[in-house]
Amino acid sequence: DRLTGSDASDLERAAEAALRPRRLDEFVGQRVVRDQLSLVLDAAIGRGSSPDHVLLSGPPGLGKTTLAMIIAAELGASLRVTSGPAIQHAGDLAAVLSSLDEGEVLFIDEIHRLARPAEELLYVAMEDFRVDVVVGKGAGASAIPLTLPRFTVVGATTRAGLLPAPLRDRFGFTGHLDFYSSDELERVLTRSAGLLGSALQPQAASELASRSRGTPRIANRLLRRVRDWAEVRGDGSMDLRAARAALEVYEVDDLGLDRLDRAVLRALCTRFAGGPVGLTTLAVTVGEEPETVETVAEPFLVREGLMGRTPRGRVATPAAWAHLGLTPPADGAT
Ligand code: ADP
Question: pTM (2 decimals)?
Answer without folding.
Answer: 0.89
